[in-house]
Structures are given as structure tokens and as C-alpha cells.
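> run fold Gamma-glutamyltranspeptidase / glutathione hydrolase
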Amino acid sequence: MLGGRPTTSSRHGMVAAAHPLAAQAGARILANGGNAFDAAAATAAALNVVEPFMSGLAGLGLATMWVAKEARIRVLDFVPAIPASFPAERFKERAELERGALPVATPGNLAGWCELAGTYGRTSLANIFAPAIALAQDGFPIAEFGALEFNEHLPLRTTYPALHENWARNYLPDGARVEVGSILRQPDLARTFQAIASEGPDHLYRGKLGEQIVAHLASLGGSLTMADLAKAAPVWREPLAVSYRGLKVHVPSPPCEGFQFLLALRILDGVDLSGLARNGAEHLDLLYRAIRLSAGVRIAHNDPAPDLLAEILSDARVEALRTRLHDGQPITGPTEQWMPRAGEDPGHTTSFSIADREGNLICVTQSLGSPFGSGVVVPGTGVCLNNFLYWADVQPGSPNRSQPGSALPICMAPSISTRDGVPVLALGTPGSYGILQTQVQAMVQYLDFGQPLQQAIEAPRARLWDGRSVHIENRIPAATIDELRRRGHEIEVFDTGWTMKTGGMQAVSVNPATGAFTGAADPRRDGYVAMP
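> ok
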């Protein structure tokens, strides 16, 4: 009756994910005695089934978490290094690596899921993967967002005939367009998860599944090897954190590029946004300027050493950026990579947040890179491979040019925030380089303007592009948009008030006084919350 999603709260756990069935899979694990780390692996696997265009076991990702028994924040990085077999010298521009066998990076997601469950979980892989196996075997009805994604990428697949046959066999068994309510069954994927539940992650990294992947890629001209797969190992890292409005916000440290998100918060922390009109021209102008300034710093130094990173986030450096924030001159600069943007980044990613009754809190962001990743589906496995080497920098002359065996910087920022040393918020989003923009926008709505978590996520958002380009959801008033244009922003208005191009955020907050969890899910995709 209030015209929006209600506040959803629980004292026994919470899962906020990009699809209702995936959120329910995680909640089922919590209800059956698992903890947040078990539930994270189960949710991730279920997303592989119900959201296969966004992520899967052959993708890459990062997790930021509060481990209650250790009373500390930890980060798990499951983004393997660029394969040693990658022929980087063959490429001159990013577009050469959009689809096919060559952009496939070493899969990291499966190793990450199993590391989370093995280190901090307490149930078996058979239990963890049971919901995903059931969904893949039985099938599930496709909802509106899923139908849109499948159908939107039908022409793309026919552009790559060597890839289309296996892709269509796996996802379009009737060979027709997907309709809302169409049942998608993935028996090959179910058998793959059954084998992993029995044999563990070595089924991929040293076993039969890996051999099938490498052989199929070789048949398509790919270069990934079993040696590349064997080197994949998740890395535990210390988080990077800054303070903002009384919270300490933690994200993965480099080579993750999440420091852009923190730098934007540092810039804005010196501005009283709460006294401005929410979603007014002054609020949005300052917000967009801070985002563009922080993006420029990240692009100039996309994998900074610790001493340089400390300097980037220092008071003196931030104060200089604040001076530029307020000087009234338009800011023109890149938001993506060092090279000029050639078309829109086809980034497809997913993020989910989970809390359990023991006090554990985790945020995971994972991806295949682009819609259906590389487009390569390995016959007989149901596995769709990533195209993360498209996100490497192969532009000659770039200071960030990628090399075989080097780290692969990733624009993700799964976050955990604490207040006085106590965890209070898990928040993450997909959205390519927009991740580092939309999380800033939501945090400002939540902390500066006091919006409830669900309303903070639902608030109108924008996606900034190279130059001065800003695309805004159409719920912002025309007069505000006119004023933003007058201030130098090149505004284009989306023809909808809700678009996945501004992310798909999922979050869980914790009330330390009551122990209650509140979940929030983004209506821009199929986001939903579930409780045990």
C-alpha cells in the first residue's frame, strides 16, 4: 500500500541475491544448519543455474566478510593471475578479446566457493551444491529479466557461429526465443555439480572437467592450459578501509580496483551533503564530480603499490581533489580504462550479501565478464566460460598494459562496513566500472540522507562514461537535469526509471542493539531477499 518493497527483517539470518531461487538456496542452507559461508557457496552455485548470463563456476570474483569467531574482516580473492599462456603480444585493442576462446581467463569462482566453505563453513559440498543440482535437473520458469537477457543475446551468438551451436543446445533446447515462464533445464550442469560435490574442486583444476575445458578451447584456437588451471588458488588478503559518516568501509585491496569507491567517499566526506536537497542539482553535481575525479586517479594507477595507495588516500591528496571538486569548472575525464571507450562495456556481474545468526556477514561479487562471458559453452558440461581477458588492458602504450602471469585488476568492490568495530552493513553491486560509481550513490542515499536501506538502493542512479557523459534514470526531474547540463555534465536520460545499466545492488544491514538483519534487493534486476 506504500508503493514500494517493504522492509524485510529477521533475527535468524538473511540472504539478498539477484534471483529469488538463489536467495532461497542460501536460506535453505542456513535453515539446515549451515552458516553464512556455506550459504554463500550455495547461493553462488544456484546463481550459476538461474542467472547463467551473469556468473558461474568458470567465472572470477571476490568476497569481503566479517568472521565472527575471529572478530575481524577478511577478503578472499579468487581472481587468478592472467594465464601464463596468454599471447598478449598478439593484440592491439580490447575489442579483439570480446568473444571466443582467447579471452578465457583461468576460472576462479569454483575455487573461491570451495575455499569459503572449507575454511569457515561446516557442511559438505554435497549439501552446498544440492539446491543448484536440483534447479538444474528439474528446471525453473524463466522470469522477465532472464527472458530479456537470453533474447537480447540471440543475435550476438549467431555472429559467432562456432560458438552458437553449443550455447543454444545448452540454453535453448527448443531452438526458439525464450518466453516468460519457459522452463530451462540444464542436465549437463547438474552432472557437473554432482561430480564436483563428489570429487571437490580438483575435478576442474586437475581433473576431467579441466581436461574437457582445455581440449575444447584448443579446438577453437584457445591457449589456456592445464598448468594454468593448476595454478589457480584463492588468496586471503587484508582489506582496505576508509571512514565515512561514522562507518569504516572495507573493500578488497589491489589488485582489486575497489579503492576508487573508497576514494570517492573520502572526497565526499569533507562535504555536508545532508543539508542539500536530496536528488537535487547540487547533490548530484558534487556526487558525479567526486566519482569522475576518483575514476581518473584509479585509471592512472590501477594497481598501486601500498605506499602509493596510502598517498592516494592521504589527507593531502584528498584535499587537493576536494579543491577541484568545488572549483566550478567542468570535469572531463575517463571512467573505464586507459584507452578510449569504444562502445558500451558489456559487463555482466552479480553480487549478493548474507548474514547468519552467529554474526558472520559476507558480501560476494562475481562475474563471467560479459553476457555469457566468452560465449564458449563446453559440450557435455553445461559450463559457460568467462571472457575476463577482455578486461585486461592490451592497448599498446598504456601504463597498465597486462602481461602473462601478472595480476588481473578487477573493478569489483564487495564491501563490509563496521561501526565502532562491529559489523553493520554488507553491500555490493554488479555493473562493470559502474560498480565503483553506483555503490557511492547508494551509500550517500543511505548515510547522508538517511534513507532506509531498500529505499537507498531504489533511489534514482546514474552511470558516468568517458568525457563528461552521464546517463541518468528518468525519475530525476527535468529542471534538475537542465541545471546539471548547465554545470557541464553531458546528460542523456534513460527511457526508463529502472535500468540494470546502473547496477543491481544487494545488501544486508545489522542492528547491533537488537541483532536484527534487514535485507534489501535491487528491483533493477530479479533481486530478492530470503530468510531461513
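The chain is about 35% helix and 20% strand.
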